[in-house]
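Next comes a single protein record:
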Amino acid sequence: MADRTSIDIEGTRTVIARLKELGLSFEQAAATMKDAASRYDGCWGNDEFGEAFAKAYVDNSAKTLEYIATLANNLGLTGDAVTKAVDLLVKTDENNAART
């Protein structure tokens, strides 16, 4: 069994930065989709076919926008949590090295 644990700190920070970038991309996509959905809301009309479309579309559209916004937020929160974990690991390693 190995008696050493290691982590590529810079590589991990690069992945964290990419994760946060993805979160921002999802935020922008959600905003674009929400804007488009609001501009075209109701364009399907009130006839039988329009009402059938709305019945299938409206709830799913709202849920999709909500899920994308949640995903964007969660990617950012995950990046923040991993950053804190890496910072703590680095600090612990520095403290341990100072004791020897």
